[in-house]
Give the backbone structure.
Amino acid sequence: MRRQSDDAMTLYRFVMMIPRWWLLLMVVPALADEGIFDQYRDLMGDDNPAIFVIEEGEEFWVQSQGPSAATLEACDLGLGTGVTRGAYAQFPRYFADTDRVMDIETRLLYCMETLQGRDREVIAAKPYSLRGDFGTELEALVTWLAAESEGMTIAPEQAHPKERAMYAMGEEIFFYRAGPHDFSCATCHEQSNKRIRLQQLPNLTEHTEVAEAYGSWPAYRMSQGLVRTMGWRLQDCFRQQRWPGLIFGSEVSIALQTYMAVNAAGGVMTAPGLKR
Amino acid sequence: MVWIGVAPVAVSEDLASVIHASFSDSGQATLMRLEQDPLQQRCSQPRDERVDDDTAMALRQERLNAVVFPKDGNFLGDWQRGAAVAASGRGLQSNDDPSIANGGNCYACHQLAPTEVAYGTLGPSLTQYGLRGQSEAMLRYTWTKLWDTHAFNLCSHMPRFGAQKILTEQQLKDVMAFLLDPNSSVNQPAEGPSSAH
């Protein structure tokens, strides 16, 4: 069950309608001119519809849920119990209590399980919304937590050996070619100033570009009317890569996020972003 | 997955098993696709900056020997059908219906007909490709490029449309005509406001 004040919900539904209207109006020119999305972004200014999702995420954080009827306020995101400011900017990181490197999404899942007594498998079975849905609880929480790091420096730890191993593995996976098209992440993201059709491709091996890309997720996707997380972005790029389905919270997912975050270190968190 | 905590860790031996454990079958995209052939393995090493050693030469020769040319000796199909193949980006993704023909997705990476402005830049522009003519050498070069691009450029980013059965022989002939037929839209002069000449 979603908890949401009526006012916010009405506004939220209304705002979520906007992108589809725009798309209908813009379908023809949009094919010829990607610039329309930039114009839309300028028009929106600071009014990223993700602000409603941020609010929702904070509500989820303080809401008692699960068999233990507990909130997430005692969740340790790496900076100490309950500290949310700046936590996102330091993910993925090693946690001694699980003895593994975790991204923010799997860490949240861990807290839901341990603090609230909720079934991890149930949440992991549908972490991301489908087109036409409202966002999931996890998406809202991640969006709020990203906003809690807005303006801060991207600074993932690389102190623990497992963190360094995760980076090294991420790098290998980034260049790993497989599948019927022989694609790897590098096929589309190891060069600057390239595009697929009209979509600009960031060079994720180059600091400035990866910082801009990594720091802008989670992002509100105008074409889908939803906030999407970095975990979702990876799943969707693997689909285009013609690979099988990326398992939520898997080692590959965390390794690639570590690779990007470390390459982006020193850059600034601007999320939630606004994307076409 | 258990990690051994010494850095930097040589992860290569573990990599395949980690990758396998991180994916699940999704429609036609099954775990089988994660197995690498020798070429994919060779071309997954960014730091081995294109060493043209004996292994590379042998691999390239192997790809070249394996190219299957059209059985009837006819390289050129219908350019209009080829235009449709070039424009379609669908096929072989987990969410694609395998009973519908695959596309070549050429516009993702190449400029082709100058009237199509939504083209990508991962590969070179192929506009006016037909100016190179239809000599036997040209037909065989282009066919080979489409069948298995690695026969010439070992670690090319372009997919192997024939060798990997992404496109059928007939679709390849149609795409050949799209590139080489003088009447094809690829080989028309650029028009419209953006044309300066």
The radius of gyration of chain A is 18 Å.
